[in-house]
Amino acid sequence: MAQSAALAALPQVAAAFIQTSNAHIIDMGNAAYLDRKQNRPDLDAVDGCTRPNHDFYDALAQAGVNTVIRYYSDQNNANLNCKNVTRRERDLLHEHGLALAIVYQFEGRSKNRFTGSRGAQDAEFCLERARIINQPTGSTIYFGVDSDAGLNSDQGVTDYFRAVRRVFGGRYDIGIYAAGARCQLIQSAGLASRFWVPEAPAWLGTHAYMNSNRWHLFQNKTNIDLSAVTDGHGQKIHIDTNIVNPDQTRSIGAFTRDGSERTYDPSHLNAVAKAHYWVNQDRLPVYDYPGGSEVAHLCIARTVHVISSNDGWAEVDINEDGLPNGYCQQGGLLPLKQMPKWRRTSCKLMDI
């Protein structure tokens, strides 16, 4: 795409959109409990999930977050680090007005992990966890194939989802969290109905799949812990943020307190999508003011939230808390529907 066309495609995002254009869906690997075990052998892993961090959950809601994706995982028979979502946590999220969505992920980067027999085993485990937290039937359980395509064969991944589908027997909707090539594989086979792409632009097929516009959910920022949402709540908290494709869906299969499906206003989804852009330069500097001193940078094929734009400059939020972090040149950005190809560069991702 020519630079002039890219500039023309960038809308004048009003400052009033700050709250309505934030990424409003997050995923968290661990629940936010103040007594969560954090590499401390003196804390019991089971009893260390008793003091909910209400301040953090209030901050989520105030920042415009309305949905939290949480985990089922074999790793924690003792609920190590509060990884497995519990009924207590479900109630806690709902008390703060947050919908809950579910993803199963365990050893997703292990070589040759995905087979038909393992798919059946994981599906049975998820049914038991769903019973424990009273996950409503008809909601979605995503399964994480959290690796690039080389570690697991196409046939193995297909067999895995075929087994999940058989064991579920229509009780739950099936989603996949995977590189673009894996989402395309399972979508073409008709073995899942929701497709969630990780923030891993180098993974096989992700560039093509994102630009095919067939995806439902994109994990646009990972490991955020230095933002107004995550910082200053008495513990170190990591969150990832996600964007819904408004052309494909109004729902990701999350559920509310009464068990109903959480749906999203199309105008809100469009505002979020239109305010997020791809970086189209190897390294794009962020300045404290237009033409000022560099305060941060962005790397190729990563997203940024544009708060406003004027005279060739975009005011940007780089850690998804809705607050501006500086300015970058508009010519270094492309719309969300036009993901550039990732390439290896010297640009290093910043802690956010």
TrEMBL record:
The domain of life is Bacteria
Q: Which Pfam families match?
A: Rv2525c_GlyHyd-like
The family database entries (InterPro entries) matched by this protein are listed as: GH, Rv2525c-like_Glyco_Hydro-like
Gene3D superfamilies, alphabetized: Glycosidases
Domain Rv2525c-like glycoside hydrolase-like per the UniProt entry, residue ranges: 59-244
Q: Give the source species.
A: Parasedimentitalea denitrificans
**What is the protein name given in its UniProt record?**
Rv2525c-like glycoside hydrolase-like domain-containing protein
